[in-house]
Predict the structure.
Amino acid sequence: MAKKIIITIARQYGSGGREIGEKVAELLNIPLFDKQLIADAASKGNLNEEVLRKTDETAANSLLYTLAMGSNVVGTTMHFGYKMPINDKLFILQSEVIKEYAQRGSCVIIGRCSDYVLREEENVFRIFIYGDLEHRKERVKERHPEIKSSQIIDVINKTDRRRASYYNFYTGNKWGKYDNYDIAINSSTLGINGTAEMIANCARQLIEE
């Protein structure tokens, strides 16, 4: 490949965003970072990994802390001490880890406001993946048979609200808003494989320019 490219993927719940990211990474032969972010953040901050997993992609609820920090906490450092909410500690640590990943070379990063965290980096390809509700319902039902059919819509809506709240809180931008991304793709149109191939083909053109 001619140059480095960092692909960030934000996704609606049930759209297949993570699986698409895995296939893009495979097609381009580059690493994927998702859950590994939590382990690396825990190691970097000397924090309990299981505790961090429970707060992953969840915004802090401290009004006083929000007012003190302004609209977001990107760019801050870990000198605020034990009073900083664990959500904010995780976000800051993950942001530092994401930047380290980007410095190493080409990769795919799932969620965690990575498009915003890397906003000043070059060669970042920002993707938002969404899907038709019926396709998302079927996908969630298939992957999580323990969820009752009557509860699937509620689970989808709550998960998307949580992701939107997290993104909006830490970036000051609006999750899913088209001008925060380079491409927004409906995965229901081309399917998981077709969507991954489309993203990979676009990435190839970008790195060969």
Residues 187-207 form the longest helix (21 residues). The first strand starts at residue 6 and ends at 11. The chain has one domain: 6-207. Residues 62-82 have pLDDT under 50 and may be disordered.
